Amino acid sequence: MMAIFPESVQRFLDLLMPMGAFVVVLLFGYGLRGYLLSMLSRWARAANSRVGDMILIAIRGPFLVLWIMLALYVALGVSGLPGTWVERANRALFILAVVAVVMVTSNILCGWVRIRAERIESILPVTSLTENIIRIVVYSVGALIVLNALGISIAPILATLGVGGLAVALALKDTLSNFFAGFHIIVNRQIRVGDYLRLESGQEGHVNDISWRTTQIRTLQGNLVLIPNAKLTELIVTNYTLQDKEMAVLVDLGVHYSSDLVKVERVTREVAAEVMREVPGGVPGFVPFIRYNTFGDSSIGFTTILRAQSFVDQYLVKHEFIMRVHARYAREGIVIPYPIRAINTDQEKRGEG
Q: Among the CATH numbers 1.20.1300.10, 3.30.1330.60, 3.30.70.100, 3.90.1150.10, which is that of 247-332?
């Protein structure tokens, strides 16, 4: 049968149909993307939802990429290419789509868990190790889907992993030990991100992160201390914020023996209460008190008990209290004596000393 159109025109028409299908589907997807993102953005603003903002950021780019893949799939379906070529191209597009969906899903899940952990005391606090576990699970599911699409049976793979698992475990003994120790630290919840720790080795600071290998502690000087998770579980650790972040702040003082101790107590408590109310990090509702405790060499010693909102806040609380109580004592005529030692020279001359 004679062709209706010349061969060159026929080839152009054969190419025009898949191109037209690609452009139509792509334009429809672009419009749908704009509508959905606009609707999601309005909902996030109206509900003041961080989850909506996080989903919006996660799908903005991948949505268009996935729709381009769908447009290519439709274009290949109406093209005149050989069936084997179309089948291979569709399989490749499916694998790329699975990879994109897995990446978006893992980002959304990690972001959602992070937001939920900020609102409630979660069972599994969010750290680098927690997020890595979530990503490993999601990527594993995606890998199984890809293998199934390629027609590869996972049973031999699982058998191979079972045989080689022992060798891998021996080769990565220290790494796996730190991994499971980190998981144990997170689940046990006796050490959490943000806690202030003091180790038996002397280092102290806030827990910055718990990763698959190390726990990161940032000291007050800004240095980062990396402790292997397995080592951390063996150390004696003091956690200053596990039960209650607030802590007592003790300041030792001494006044002259001729001081009116009732007046000293009243003045000291007034200054301490002022510090609690006005200094950032103090506990306004706490009523400070003092306790006399020693007859020293040159003074009557006592301890002032204040309270700070966290371990770090104690330094500013002590600083302000010492400055203010020193100035107030000067105005009130309360003497903080220098160390005094009396030498009996007559006794020394008589040879009794």
A: 3.30.70.100
